[in-house]
Amino acid sequence: MSSKDAPRTAEVSLYDAAGLAEAGTADANYDALERRLRASGVPLVAHVEQLLNDPHVAPDVWGGLACLLERCATADLRGAVGLVLIMHDLDEASRVLEPAAPVLERCSDRLTEPSTRDAFREFYRLPDDYALDSATFYKLGTTSFILECRRAPTDDRFAKPQRFALKCLLPRYLLIRSIRQRTLAYKHEHGAEVSHAPQIYESTERYIAMDLVVGDTLAERFALHRSKRRTGGIDFAFVRAVGVTLCTILGELHQDRHHHLDLSPSNIIVGPDDALDLTLVDFGHNFAITEKVSSNAATKQAMHYIAPELFDDTTRDDAKCDMYSLGVILLEAAADANQDLGKAGDDSLSMLWERAPGIARIVEDLIDDKPEYRLLLADEETAAIHIFTSPTSSSRRPR
Ligand SMILES: Nc1ncnc2c1ncn2[C@@H]1O[C@H](COP(=O)(O)OP(=O)(O)O)[C@@H](O)[C@H]1O
Ligand SMILES: [Mg+2]
Fold first, then answer.
1. Residue 105, domain member (yes or no)
2. Which residue's C-alpha comes closest to atom 25 of ligand 1?
3. Ligand 2 centre from 258 Cα, in Å?
4. Is the CB of 166 under 6 A from ligand 1?
5. In this structure, are 325 and 277 located in the same domain?
6. Does the C-beta of 141 come closer than 6 Å to ligand 1?
7. Do 29 and 136 fall within a single domain?
8. How far is the CA of 191 from the centre of ligand 1 (A)?
9. 289 touches 302 (CB < 8 A)
10. DSSP letter string, 47-111
């Protein structure tokens, strides 16, 4: 946005509009307000960006906007306000580790308003054939959210699948150049056909369009397993299945000189079938975490899975970074209901040594802080699979 059209020079802003709405001003004034907003010549989307990127918005502004949404008459203002409220809700939910489902549902409801869909399309600069009329907010991540979208129907029977996932950056991350660039380059860097990863169709500075992968995340599966095992005890079959499957996938990936670099249970999707069918999403060095541009709860948790050497810019072995993450994931798979999640802490590891020394030995080898001491049991990922499948890994089950 150039300084020429910066909203600060506008006669009125969405802040004023929200303030008036909060104060319960008579309806007649809303028409005048809307006229003034439009007369300012500043695109509504610029007002939206200003509000979303201002870290010091008073909490009552959001309440004011909700009132305004009920009262404003013009479709484009309604759309802009609807968009601001959606983004604000998603942003809030991504900062705290609360279940996202109610927020996603509320935002999906707001998107049923055509003017909000228009504002959303303009904000993310979406192509015309990305149909939003039945789109729903599907998942929330650490820096983005996933919208389940459709492509407008075509007669081409070889056309790509109609239903797809649109990963959109949350507005505050749109301000960070390294994150925008990573998003833009995603198709180029990770779009080659990689097994166990969704096909990527398009990536811009604001979004990535890709196959929709149906299933729970491994994080959700872990939570389910833990709730079933409140009384303690390790589900060896599960831990081993996760270990063997991930070792196999990483082995294939690394052989193709591809690396994940942000492997965590939230970036692994488990297919709906009984077999452990895993798909990796969200490839690439996560700048929001390693450059500490975000301190929200979700990114703090995501930090636990990242190899320490990824936090400084010394030369590193990318495959070893992924194997470190695998170790933390396995430690979590073996943790019980009372343990702190995703922490490669001494407590979790010593408990694992007591209960399952075979698995503990592998995990300890994977999560060594120093890459040169990591993977001493197995130089290659394929060898790690043998450790898993060897009988020693579960030979001393606690009685
Ligand atoms: N292609 C996809 N299909 C279905 N769900 C996905 C897809 N990509 C990501 N997700 C889900 O959305 C969440 C957020 O996406 P992700 O790419 O991990 O974003 P972030 O960088 O914000 O963490 C993931 O944890 C996963 O649950
Ligand atoms: Mg993610």
1. no
2. 266
3. 18
4. no
5. yes
6. yes
7. no
8. 15
9. yes
10. HHHHHHT-TT--HHHHHHHHHHHHH--SHHHHHHHHHHHHHHHHHHHHHTT---HHHHHHHHHHT
Residues 163 and 51 placed together within one structural domain of the fold: no
**262 and 382 belong to one structural domain:** yes
- For residue 238, the CA-to-ligand 1 centroid distance in Å is 23
Radius of gyration over alpha carbons of the chain, in Å?
A: 24
Ligand nearest to the CA of 144: 1
Query: DSSP letter at 40?
Result: T
Is the CB of residue 329 less than 8 Å from the CB of residue 264?
A: yes
- 90 CA → ligand 1 middle, Å: 14
Residues in the 5 Å CB sphere of ion ligand 2: 141, 267, 282
Are residues 130 and 229 both part of a single domain? no
Asked whether residue 290 falls in the same domain as residue 200, the answer is no
Number of domains in the chain: 3
**Whose alpha carbon is nearest atom 14 of ligand 1?**
141
Residue 14 lies in a domain: yes
CB 393 within 8 A of CB 355: no
pLDDT in tens, the chain (399 residues): 444 444 444 456 777 777 766 666 555 566 777 777 777 777 777 888 888 888 788 877 888 788 778 777 778 888 888 999 999 999 889 887 777 899 999 999 999 999 999 999 999 999 998 999 999 999 998 899 999 999 877 666 656 668 999 999 999 899 889 999 999 999 999 998 888 999 999 999 999 999 999 999 999 888 887 777 655 567 778 888 899 899 889 988 998 889 999 999 999 999 998 788 999 999 998 877 777 776 677 777 888 899 999 888 678 899 999 999 999 999 888 876 555 544 545 677 888 888 888 888 888 999 999 999 888 876 555 555 665 655 444 433 333
Distance 152 CA to ligand 1 centre (A): 23
Residues 319, 186 within the same domain: no
300 CA → ligand 1 middle, Å: 17
Laid out side by side, the sheet with 278-280 consists of 216-217, 268-270, 278-280
Is residue 267 lining ligand 1, measured as CB closer than 6 Å?
Answer: yes
Which residue among 267, 279, 290 is best mutated to probe the pocket of ligand 1, counting the most ligand atoms within 8 A of its Cβ? Answer: 267
Taking the model in full, what pTM does it have?
0.87
Find the ligand nearest to 142 CA. 1
Q: How far is the CA of 213 from the centre of ligand 2 (A)?
A: 14
Same structural domain for residues 229 and 344?
Answer: yes
171 Cβ below 6 A of ligand 1: no
Predicted pLDDT at 368: 92
Q: What is d(CA 278, CA 292) in angstroms, rounded to the nearest whole number?
A: 29
